[in-house]
Amino acid sequence: MALAHVLGFPRIGAHRELKFAQESFWKGASDEAALRATGATLRARHWQAQADAGLDFVTVGDFAWYDQVLGTLALLGAIPSRFGFDPKQLTLADYFTLARGSKHHFAMEMTKWFDTNYHYLVPEWTAEVQFDGGVDWLHDEIAEARALGHKVKVALVGPLTLLYQGKIKSGIAHKLDLLPKVVAGYQQLLQRLHAAGIESVQIDEPILALELDAAWRAAFAPVYAQLSGTAPALLLTTYFGEVSEHADLLRALPVAGVHLDLVRGAGQLEQIAAGWPQDKVLSLGVVDGRNLWRTDLDQVLSKLKPLQAQLGDRLWVASSCSLLHVPVDLANEPKLDDELKSWLAFATQKLAEIVALKLALNGKAAEVEAQFVASRAAQASRRSSSRIHNPLVQKRLAAVTAADAERSAGFAARIAKQQAKWQLPAFPTTTIGSFPQTAEIRQARAAYKRGEIGHLDYLDKMREEIRDVVEKQEQLGLDVLVHGEPERNDMVEYFGEQLWGYTFTANGWVQSYGSRCVKPPIIYGDVYRPEAMTVGWSQFAQTLTSKPMKGMLTGPVTMLQWSFVRDDQPRETTALQIALALRDEVCDLEKANIGMIQIDEPAFREGLPLKSRDWPHYLDWAVRAFKISAAGVGDETQIHTHMCYSEFNDILPWIAAMDADVITIETSRSDMELLDGFGQFAYPNDIGPGVYDIHSPRVPQVDEMERLLRKARGVIPDARLWVNPDCGLKTRGWPETYEALENMVLAAKRLRETVEQERKAA
């Protein structure tokens, strides 16, 4: 009999209950007991949903107060020693200091989890790091689940993935130098789980979907030989891509079973299943954990049936990866129209899909026939619906030429004209775009959406906010201003709401990091811009100042990556449709005398395929999409872009090929390490490395920012160096924002004085 399980469930709650409890705790409005109570309520609710759906286990260990990697470090006792915390006595306040920083500590570095929009806290590897055990939170959660009567499967980040995803800070030459310590820590943990009666542990090793070198590949067999001896049954899980090159290794590993992602690696099944060992489970991820389209149950069942004859009860049916990456429950979406809603499945509905497949395999098809009928109807509806295809978009797409992706002159000629026009000082200061979204701003937007205030009243409130932001920037002495984006709920959602081919949910929240949740749009059809989206706001803001006002847009790749994208055409086709819509907006901004336009692409690196052999195709169309969005303007119009929280060094030639006049990047959490690659590559255009971390409430002092700028000068020529924060300031409060920007402007002024003194001395 086939079994059913999931690799993880969304932890934030259907209505972001965890987010609000976290933020209340951070503000001091509630205590740790209240936060823990919210966590316990959510866990119980999510376990019950899994049990009610008919899964054979509930997954414990997928919950995290901020991030599962940080949670694993806290569990093992491997937190950075620089914070001075005792891992065994770690409080939630300490834990959040690791993630968010404090007045005395800068936060741990944060970056993207593989090719998702989820961010994790990067482990810091030193010779001194210990894996001697830490908090008991996982063991407490196991006890909670058992007390509620659930059969438990524990989920852990695997030891090799944990090591691989960290960063060496000092004292070791290679991450694998820490392997004996890591294995000992996991042995201790697994032995404790075994002694507590845990029968099954899911151990996640998604690095198997990467192109691992020989040393990492060779580490798997001995590591799992050591872990499997006295451990519960280990299900080694891989996801986010195919792992067929490791087929022999996976068959031979001394584990109880292996999980494959058949959504991202559909072609690997035949090769890996052939000759599958008689003593191993094969878990197949056939329900998409990263997108929300309804599963074609007939198609999946036809793929699974031959395997059931081969595997029997060693066949497990599952989500492709954790359901962390999709919203919680479609039942909370009363405003979606019936046709569109019939095409979708959120996490709760995906549980039912998994169980329907299990029951159909186990000879109980009659019990789930209604689900199969609904699945067939949804697939047929999507194929035939007239709302999917737009002939005008198709015609324009067919007419695009190579010339549409090129500016009329090269960077050297453009920058000379731009400098003559703007007359900016050395090391010009700016921000990334958004300013704090106050309660008043959010209330006004919500009241407008509910129809409680009219359009003119809403316009007045937003213009009042823009006036205030422009005035503050003038007071601070910033050189290039922004309008602050008070009208924008989200950098993707705002644009998607104004484009055809997009739709939106009311409660389709997904965790990005910590308490930061996003509500990704759904791209269901051809994308088209019916009218200007930002011109009026930017034009109004420019009337308030003589300084340059940047127009602010979200780029085509990020619009794609941070949406749930239609799966009935290639992603690059959808990206190009978005690029053409943005091109129209860029040209309209220029016509409105907005001479600096920022097209943000924070997800550009995130979209990179996990295997380098697949990079060229992605990078070619991603660069082309960006250039098409930007290339319709004249030489004097300065195009900016922004990227953050990613490693860029391996794709710098393509970033340079995007040919933005100015790029701003996140570098402060890495102490400017990320900038080194730009210097070694000799990045040709202007660049603004972030000089302070906006994801922490900590306000850095002037000397700290000045030190980072001096490091940047060692990499980037003075004439091409800008000064800015790491990212947008939407999530921060005004007092800390003002103080931090005040310090940043002063640091830039000091640097100008230093350069002038150097010039005179020379």
Automatic annotation (TrEMBL):
Binds 1 zinc ion per subunit. Its cofactor is Zn(2+). Residues 427-749 form the Cobalamin-independent methionine synthase MetE C-terminal/archaeal domain. Pathway: Amino-acid biosynthesis; L-methionine biosynthesis via de novo pathway; L-methionine from L-homocysteine (MetE route): step 1/1. GO terms for biological process: methylation. Catalyzes the transfer of a methyl group from 5-methyltetrahydrofolate to homocysteine resulting in methionine formation. It comes from Collimonas rhizosphaerae. This is 5-methyltetrahydropteroyltriglutamate--homocysteine methyltransferase. It comes from the Bacteria. Belongs to the vitamin-B12 independent methionine synthase family. L-methionine binds at residues 432-434, 485, 600. 5-methyltetrahydropteroyltri-L-glutamate binds at residues 16-19, 112, 516-517, 562, 606. CDD domains: CIMS_C_terminal_like, CIMS_N_terminal_like. The lineage of its organism: Bacteria, Pseudomonadati, Pseudomonadota, Betaproteobacteria, Burkholderiales. Its EC number is 2.1.1.14. Signal peptide: none annotated.
